[in-house]
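Quick one, T. Sequence first:
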Amino acid sequence: MSPSPLALGIDFGTSGVRGAVVDDHQQLRWFYRQHYPSRSQIHNSWRDALLDLLAAVPEEIGPALTRIAVDGTSGTVLLCDRGGEPLTPALLYNEACPSKPLDPAPALVPPHSPARSATSSLAKLLWWQHTLPKTQWHQATYLLHQADWLAAQIHGQWGISDYHNSLKLGYDPEKLSYPAGLQGQPWTPLLPQVLTPGQGVGPVTQAIAAQFGLSPDCWVMAGTTDSMAAFLASGADQPGDGVTSLGSTLVVKLLSQRRVEATEYGIYSHRLGRWWLPGGASNTGGAVLKHFFDSPTLAQLSQRIDPLGITELDYYPLLKPGERFPIQDPHLAPRLTPRPPQDEAFLHGLLVGIARIEKQGYDLLQQLGSTPLRQIYTAGGGARNPTWHTLREQILQVPIKIAASVEAAVGTAYLAQGVLAARFDSPEVGQPTP
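Structure tokens:
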């Protein structure tokens, strides 16, 4: 009897790599995590981590893998030569480029495009064009996102991306094309071919199959970003489903039948099949709580709070001035006073304050045209706090569930399996051919 087909999702986060293998019933069969090895160039650390992960796949699992997909941090890019080798150090997702090279950007992409951001893939391409010596610039053949470059290590085809990673490059996921402003530029040939996330790219190379004991019929599928992978892992799959990440910051996403764009709030929409996923990130979140209390103290104080009780405290918990979503004000001051003498009362006010900001975020998305919120899936460390869970349900007035999985690697494994077509009705997803 042949083994049941398995899919491997590989998640490249900010500090390390994770891998997850799921079966055809979406049950987790294997999980792996590793910090990046220390190398002088970060891309070599990524490549080493990828090869270490593939080497760690158990012998009984490797031959049964039929599909692999990779996710990476959004806006992390490499400029590569014709052999796929980076010409410069990678520019990471949070690295902003000075404004001068961005002057042409407004003419290149529509006003709502996240490609106008100083941390976007497009900004980094223009920065390289502006700053690299001509001899080095003229060697450039491919602009690749982190996930693109790493996936190419195992399928061998350079210059291929997906429309999640390419959104910050200016790609239009609604028209499934680059806008006119990005066409006919001297650097247009560097732009990757863009596929639907989960679409088949090609089988693993013969060398990779032989080295790691994989089937030569194992296909590599177009990938996604780490945040989109986390959404796919959550279990949300209907318009009106929200996903809140209660990590260091507060991030909300809301599956919608309509596209929502509002760059003044940092809101843009990823495409998910026939639907859209707008979202925004607040500067509030778990980092504020940990500034005042360590984890054991947070747990102890939370147990003393009556989640159905009322607090008169009206906090806007921030560590420093400045907020973008759901309020756009770079000078917005933290509101953390008065502080009551009882620590549990202070924590109660903080938790309620963050929950009210979460509600404001979802309310803003709906005011801008998204599908109304019907339920929320929660991920991140805050998901494990039952007091906060009850407080949030009281304030948001919708059911709140714990995400089915908080691991982006699991979501990427689902993507490799074809979840985009199955859950989100994405008819343009191509199937791999034998």
